[in-house]
Amino acid sequence: MNDALTLSGQVAQRLRERIADGTWTAGATLPAERRLATELGVSRGSLRAGIAQLQAEGLVEARQGSGTRVCADLSQVPLDWMSWVLAHEGLDPNEALIVIEQLVALRRTVALHVLEQAIDALDEIKLDAFRRLVREQGQSIGQPIRYEAFEQQIERFFIALADNRIVSLLNESLRRCFKARPEVVTAFMGDLENHHAGNQALLAALQLVVEQPEQKSQIMAAIKEGLVEFEAQGLVRVREQVSG
To answer: Which residues contact 97 (CB under 8 A, 6 or more apart)?
Structure first.
């Protein structure tokens, strides 16, 4: 078990793995508490705490007299479930690609929605804050971990500017999903110099919006086109990485 997790967290992780790898399918009843605790080598109290975590996540449901069952429809559980599915080593590459492509499409929808809201609150002062982030990110191209940290800051900058609390939660769930496969994130982003050139292009486009607000619709259309093209190229690299 992972020492970085609490004992109940470790138990919850092992239970999730059994759902992710198909040991327990949707609607299946978990083994009796005493038997499962013995099998996992933990106390019944730790097992109950681990199961409680899965209940809070919507993965299992407990009913008096009928035991604990896996959710009958796993497509209805929270988005974070995909992070555990992607982290499962036995996941079929084709299934992984389907999940990744759907997550990328969701991310695009969220990003464009946030950007459109953020643009309405954009002014020279806020644009200058974004310009500093882009500049500092460019200085970190030789340091991938630091570079990606700046990318997270940029995402949060626009979410804060849009003042959208729901998107903030959704974005964090998406980030946890992608974090489950860091090699996929690296492949998707591609060459960091080219990636950074995209952020510089976004900066130039937003400068135009501030100077010519009447051109917002046309500029947003161009931004969307550029994002779709970047994603298409990124997914080609991801397919090569996952299939290879």
So the answer is: 238, 239, 242, 243
Task: Compute the distance between CA of residue 177 and CA of residue 191 in angstroms, rounded to an integer.
Answer: 22
Q: What is the pTM of this model?
A: 0.79
CA dist 27 and 228 (Å) reads 38
Cα 119 to its chain centre, rounded Å, is 23
Whole-angstrom distance, CA of residue 163 vs CA of residue 182: 28
Q: What would the two tokens of residue 91 be? A: 């996941």
DSSP state of 29: B
Can you tell me whether residue 26 is helix, strand or coil? Answer: coil
What residue ranges define each of the domains in the chain, with the CATH number in brackets? 7-76 (1.10.10.10), 81-243 (1.20.120)
pLDDT at 230 over 90: yes
pLDDT band at 3 (very low <50, low <70, confident <90, very high): very low
* Three-state secondary structure string covering 196-214: HHHHHHHHHHHHHHHHCHH
Tens digits of residue pLDDT in 203-221? 999 999 999 999 999 999 9
Q: Are 181 and 96 in contact (CB under 8 A)?
A: yes
Q: Token pair of 39, please?
A: 């099998």
